[in-house]
DNA sequence: CTCCTAGTATGAGATTTCTCATACTTAGTG
DNA sequence: CACTAAGTATGAGAAATCTCATACTAGGAG
């Protein structure tokens, strides 16, 4: 983690993300701009963060480490979004890990100094409530899909969700944790898609060849898609 | 759903659950007392509720119905707790179903009339934030456990969690949806516990005979138990 | 240039979990 | 009292998924 002293950049991020509108009073002036490198932790498992973060650029993942060594990847964070809000609100919460996937910039408010002020600001609280509510709904959807559908179905849906220009290019290690299956099994089903001719692998990644059957597989997963 | 016009009872529930302290202004006077029978819906799938509920007695379940006919039981609601807060906060949310397990009493505020007032009340918002935050953390824990551990381990943990006086007495239908497995498989593992001598079934229910090995099985599930 | 880490790949065999079929029991309802 | 819905139980076979082992590749760090 590194503090970035570049007011122009900070200002740019703030206006891109409408940072000032998150609060009822002018908190923007107190925010620091922080930078995190790939694989750094924004929040480390069970360590209470010192800032309330607002992700303005990059990508991160929220995950839960289980006692048997497995990791469950719960959610992806993409700008703009709060990070560390659970810990700000609830002194008793046990923080989950948030780790950087692509280099991140965050606007950050020191908790110690501004917690009281934030907890009395209805504009801020309303925004956090909505954010938490959507995040919870998303997490519930993901969890119930992981439980209720087979990996072929979920993977088809995930490929269609993350595809760019007909190419699927996600990291298998991460995807397996997100879809809640072993790496081995993910590769197995992926290989099956290739064998069936739905996908074809080339230098650019996995190329979607047969869209229709993938959509068909994904149909039940995606429907009821709030 | 039935409105209960019993001011004494309402007053009693309010003081039991510290209802008035949830708000910055006196909302208590506007709350109605409602009663729901077993299997009634407090919130029906995709139907926006007309009230913000506060469960003061009884038990209910939150679940997500998937397009393939399966239901994922996400969370149990026990007093005191909000119901319908996601819908109050976020106009875009797609409500999940909340169905009564044991007859419920709820204090209820009409959304149409008081939404604006509630969304400007920092005391209320703070309470909802904390509630949402804990609920989300709980849901995440449940989901990642369901993914990361085998049913024997999860069931052992669940038995120890819900046991009363050495007896396990939950409904298999519900538990299977909560633990994210088929009814058949739950019964299979349960029968295994009986065969191994961990449990013994009598008129009162499943009696815990060997606590130690159950605790051992549950250990990794329960550890990291925020 | 070498080492190390993260990521990709595949095989083989074992478990876990699912589907479907079929019965039986119990409590509530007309 | 008969009917119905919800819950309990068990068998058999199939599938989805896991564990473990083993190789190979690419990129960053020293």
TrEMBL record, chains A, B:
GO terms for molecular function: DNA binding; DNA-binding transcription factor activity. Residues 26-118 form the Cyclic nucleotide-binding domain. SUPFAM superfamilies: cAMP-binding domain-like (SSF51206), Winged helix' DNA-binding domain (SSF46785). It comes from the Bacteria. Residues 149-212 form the HTH crp-type domain. GO terms for cellular component: cytosol. Coiled coil: none annotated. Keywords: DNA-binding, Transcription, Transcription regulation. InterPro entries: cNMP-bd_dom (IPR000595), cNMP-bd_dom_sf (IPR018490), Env_Response_Regulators (IPR050397), HTH_CRP (IPR012318), RmlC-like_jellyroll (IPR014710), WH_DNA-bd_sf (IPR036390). This is Transcriptional regulator. It comes from Secundilactobacillus silagincola.
């Amino acid at each position: 983690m590194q503090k970035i002293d570049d007011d122009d950049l900070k200002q740019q991020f703030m206006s891109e993300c409408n940072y000032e509108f998150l609060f009822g009073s002018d908190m923007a002036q107190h925010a620091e701009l922080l930078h995190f490198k790939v694989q750094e932790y924004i929040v480390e498992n069970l360590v209470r963060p010192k800032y309330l973060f607002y992700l303005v650029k990059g990508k991160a993942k929220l995950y839960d480490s289980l006692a048997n060594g497995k990791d469950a990847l719960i959610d992806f964070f993409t700008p703009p979004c709060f990070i560390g809000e659970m810990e700000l609100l609830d002194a008793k919460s046990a923080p989950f890990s948030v780790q950087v996937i692509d280099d991140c910039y965050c606007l950050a408010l020191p908790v110690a100094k501004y917690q009281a002020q934030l907890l009395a600001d209805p504009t801020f609280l309303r925004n956090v409530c909505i954010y938490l509510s959507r995040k919870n709904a998303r997490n519930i959807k993901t969890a119930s899909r992981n439980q209720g559908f087979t990996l072929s179905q979920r993977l088809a849906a995930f490929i269609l969700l993350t595809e760019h220009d007909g190419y699927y290019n996600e990291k298998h290690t991460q995807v397996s944790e997100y879809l809640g299956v072993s790496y081995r099994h993910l590769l197995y089903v992926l290989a099956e898609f290739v064998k069936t001719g739905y996908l074809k692998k080339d230098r650019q990644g996995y190329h979607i060849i047969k869209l229709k059957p993938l959509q068909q597989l994904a149909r039940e997963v995606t429907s009821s898609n709030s």
